[in-house]
Amino acid sequence: MRWPSASVTACSCALLLAGCGGGDGNQRQPSSCTARAAAVRLQAEAVEAIRSHRVPPRYQEPLMSAANGLVARLSVCSEPTPKGGGKKHGKKKHEKND
Fold this sequence. Notes:
Number of strands: 0
Order of helices and strands: HHH
Largest sheet: none
Structural class: mainly alpha
Strand content: under 5%
Oligomer: single chain
Shape: elongated
């Protein structure tokens, strides 16, 4: 049977991503776009696992609810800005003053 590994993987991903949202679950805080993409993949994989009967009926609703909730909470994404405002850091060239 493959459903135990599929449900364990899906639940592990859900728990991992749940920590990315922060807050009380009602607030939409910016997350990384990588986290958002992972949540969308989890949602699609959960749908496919349910359609292919790899998830027992009693776990289907909680799995989809968790996956849909993650996608909703991570709907706003922002890429991190580089330190220093994107300026290049390095040695400065010194000019000779004649």
